[in-house]
Amino acid sequence: MSDERSPFTPRGSTDEVEEGPALAPKFDADGLVVCVATDTRSGDVLMVAHMNAEALRRTIATGQAWYFSRSRRTLWRKGESSGHAQRVVEMRIDCDQDAVWIKVEQAGGAACHTGRRSCFYRAVPLGAPAGAVTLEFRDAEKLFDPQAVYGNKS
Amino acid sequence: MSDERSPFTPRGSTDEVEEGPALAPKFDADGLVVCVATDTRSGDVLMVAHMNAEALRRTIATGQAWYFSRSRRTLWRKGESSGHAQRVVEMRIDCDQDAVWIKVEQAGGAACHTGRRSCFYRAVPLGAPAGAVTLEFRDAEKLFDPQAVYGNKS
What we know:
The structure is a homodimer.
Chain A: H1 14-19, E1 32-39, E2 45-52, H2 53-62, E3 66-69, E4 74-77, E5 86-93, E6 99-106, E7 122-123, E8 136-137, H3 146-150
Parallel strand pairs in A: 1-6
Antiparallel strand pairs in A: 1-2, 3-4, 5-6, 7-8
């Protein structure tokens, strides 16, 4: 991109951050905000990931979801390996501006690296007797073969 | 609670964590997982917060949302000050088990401390020319007066 002027404003008072029109994200000690991606059609949560300032800037500028990998310490565009890109239909920011919600069109219909539509394919039973719980698989069909898509890159 | 046996299993291999039935959360360096709460009726994201092991354990045991405040360094039950509790209808955990999604019934209809239904009451315009962006208020009606509910407690 030729023009890289920042979309961000320095953080002001609590009232300015919560009630004002300026985008003033609160990046954490690692320079990140949390991002929740939901499916624009079903409304389901597809994944939760992180964005650093550059990922957030690129997502705003391009309408494609960019994230920052905490484990690999790298910026990545969703779908750059798998082809399963996310087109951002709407972006919201929360009251204290440390979390972002994006509603996306998920290419290939599957957001999770395991091949599932959503990363949240297991339910945690509630109110069970104390002790280890057993997760219940839900909507856990694999829409692609991760080995075929990612090869050995897990 | 009289019985406090842990619902958690030690983390195993990637395959066990991603494809297995054991709840083995990956708490970060601060001992936290991210939690996304959505409205069970509208599907909208209400808030994003964090849970430590105890908040997660209590939420599972009681079906009421408990969180851990990073700023106050305290465990809190959603609604303990405001009365706006969250009854958890379903809990999901993601592939690598470092994020939780809860679908909740929001008491009072408002999750945000500013009085709004959701914390995500401002949209970030996409694809705008570079430079500072102007947030757009959406669904930003205040359903309660935070001053009346919280008094001087921010």
